[in-house]
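Components:
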Amino acid sequence: MKYDVIIIGGGPAGLAAACSASENGAKKIVIIERDKELGGILNQCIHNGFGLHYFKEELTGPEYAGRFVEMLRKTDVEVKLDTMVLEVSPDKTVHCINTKEGYQALEGKAVVLSMGCRERTRGAIAIPGDRPAGIFTAGAAQRYVNMEGWMCGKRVVILGSGDIGLIMARRMTLEGAKVLACVELCPYSNGLNRNIVQCLNDYDIPLYLSHTITDIQGKERVEKVVVSKVDENRAPIPGSEIVFDCDTWSSRIWRPASPASSAAATWSTSTTWWTSSPRKACGPEPPPPSTPPARKREAPSWR
Amino acid sequence: MYDVAIIGCGIIGAATAYELSRYDLAVVALEAQNDVADGTTKANSAILHAGYDPEPGTKMARLNVEGVRLAKDLCEKLSVERKEIGSFVLAFTDEEMKTVHTLFDRGNQNGVPGLKVLTGDEVRAMEPAISTEVVGALYAPSAAIVSPWEFCIALAETAVRNGAEVRLSARVESIEKKDGSFLLHTAAGDVEAKYVVNAAGVDADKVHAMVGGHTFRTLPNRGEYFLLDKAQGELVNKVVFQCPNKDGKGVLVAPTVHGNLIVGPNAEGVETAEDVNNTAAGLAFVRKMSVKSVPSVNFRDSIRNFAGVRANSDQPDFIIEESPAAKGFINLGGIKSPGLSSAPAIGVEAVELLRSCGLSLRKKETFIDTRKRTVFRHLSPEDKAKLVKENPLYGRVICRCETVTEGEIVEAIHRPIVPRSIDAIKRRCNAGMGRCQGGFCGPRVHEILSRELDLPLDRILMDEEGSYILTQPTKEGK
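Structure:
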């Protein structure tokens, strides 16, 4: 039994690849998805703004994924959920497992790698300090809040100003958390202008450009973080420290999920966020929030 | 009344509990933290040193060589990951070559097998990534890498299966000397024991002071590390040391048994065992020193920084003694490097010391001396297929970086020492040890712990007591 196309990953890219392969005449197609439903990370992106280009309307992440799942239903594409790929051999045999069918080796004429990416963590950017609980990647925090129904912090500061970080700032605020700062290493934000306006400015969340985290304190749970201004070489400037009382932070830097695709790897966003509040006694007055000079960029339709 | 209470369940306490569990005795290990292996044991270089470093004639020299000999067999029996990959001590100058020759002589006196002094070219022929500045090296084929926390967990679990008790979150607060016994007041209630073994690591001097003893003082010394992604895991195939200095064995570059690359440590005196924070200066020092040995280390592949505190002391050697202040109170203190390497032999030594103090030892008729652990990713495709058929939970991969299945996590939760935190699961089955550092599997491990332990989600911790993850339900989640 040989598949024309084996698609690894049932997120937006895999779903689109399956629909396209089917439209273009591939007969036997399978999507292998490790989660219990299709959609990938879209399922935890409950904010709107998806589908503006493709469907000409504003959809949430799950709705956007749902449209593709509907399109897929009209095809003969096979879907294996709750299934993990262990290995892809050079002859395009895909070894995978799940709880129902056990261990399987599927042969494919073509294999599509659409496994998305992984977030790089605090360790990847070597931020010194203690290593308490309360440090999350934005993706993990988003999963807890949007899928598990649990908040993972009460006072939040975000390092990095990529879109997901900005969107999570708003999300945490709407859920009652106090987001005290968004800290960005670059002298400009990586986020879309509309997200800076709608997620930070509308909620009076200050954005500190050319700043980074230089220390994390707290034995069991994050208690304080230290933010420093950086010079043009992105090196922290001594004496510019601002100390925040806090209980959480998290990071969002992408890397590809597969070593196979690492040749094409570029880092796109770097967002880290955490909960905190300024402590005037411990440092200079925080600089006034900067007006975001957002870079001009067209919104991809899945944002 | 227990026969023996062991204070501390790191690698030293666990090795002692394991050795004592061979005998018909009531043994309890009292651990301050909510898991075993939670101090120096979980944060070190993870090396079983060959044994050329300690001065001949010291306890360290004897116990190191004996310890790594015992570890070979123990790791095999108890399913602990260990690889005998050998080590280099690099010399960059003629002066350092003298140190290499000193270590060679010392190693031979200590009984270390197979030592050789190599030229720079011979070193690079074996290990091409090593710097062209290297003029020679000591090669010790018997050095090994190990999973230190797994080693400790395996010893402690085996002790429990043989009847010993391990009490977690049971920090000893004070000790009363009674007639022929000790009454230990702990955070988990009082414990009375005829003999006490002080294996409290960095806090061993404080515990000794509880019975009025002041023979040694611990001088906590922090070492900071980088852990790099598996993409860097084969950069070197051996443990690559630099020449030792007064603070330690210098910065090393080595593969880990889990396939990563470990780089570190520095050495810095700190106030307490709690000072395990990373510092910008410490990490910068480690980076700078490591690329001297292996210039191609790519720190962009770093996935984690950590720091551990060495239980250095004001004594030149390990302190393994009956306290002069209290009869029947055994100190296993100042267990600095090579403490992990020596641990199995220190356990045996502790039992002999207890015997000489009057503890009567009768071997049990049956002693369980094996431990099985399923490591899904190490199985052949046929065995994977068979296992998933037997138990479908092995067909669900939870940690995708490390390919850890739900079956392995559930198995870990139901072992003799129950893990109660996400990091405790990480130490038992590697979930969360990969490049995403639990970003994806953390919430899923969280759910599995909650389900298997029948605890609400907000009661599951990241690691130690107080390391809560969730604060309150969302508006919709209520």
